[in-house]
From TrEMBL:
InterPro entries: DUF427, DUF427_sf. Residues 28-119 form the DUF427 domain. It comes from Mesorhizobium plurifarium. This is DUF427 domain-containing protein.
């Protein structure tokens, strides 16, 4: 992915930190119990070692009627500020289960309008093509 010559304010350039975003070739389904929260054949895989890879699902493929936004937020020096949503059908376990970078740094625009889910809070199933 091409990086802008002048990084966004707050973006931290680190030659030892390699983050990749690739299209996932297959489908991804997110469930809370038997309830489907998201299903997509257009997900992206973000790899950021040493963290596990995360599937980023387009907002259009997420059922936001099953989510409620929260006040929780975090900051990543490589991606920007993350907003969080709770997965209502998961109850207490679903608190802050989905995050998204709604206004990511220019270096991470590929994940704008995509959400990712914590695999310890909901079930994320990936089926390759």
């Amino acid at each position: 992915m091409d990086k802008p010559a002048n990084p966004a304010p707050g973006f931290q350039r680190n030659p030892d930190k390699v983050i990749t975003v690739e299209p996932y070739r297959g489908s991804v389904t997110v469930r809370a119990g038997d309830t489907v929260i998201a299903r997509s054949a257009r997900a992206k895989v973000l790899s950021e070692p040493p963290y596990p890879a995360a599937f980023y699902i387009p907002f259009d493929d997420i059922d936001f009627s099953m989510l409620s936004s929260t006040e929780h937020s975090t900051h990543c020096p490589y991606k920007g500020d993350a907003s969080y949503w709770s997965v209502q059908p998961a109850g207490e376990a679903g608190t802050n289960a989905m995050w998204a970078y709604e206004q990511p740094f220019d270096e991470m625009t590929e994940i704008r309008n995509h959400g990712a889910f914590y695999t310890n809070k909901v079930t994320v199933e990936a089926t390759p093509d």
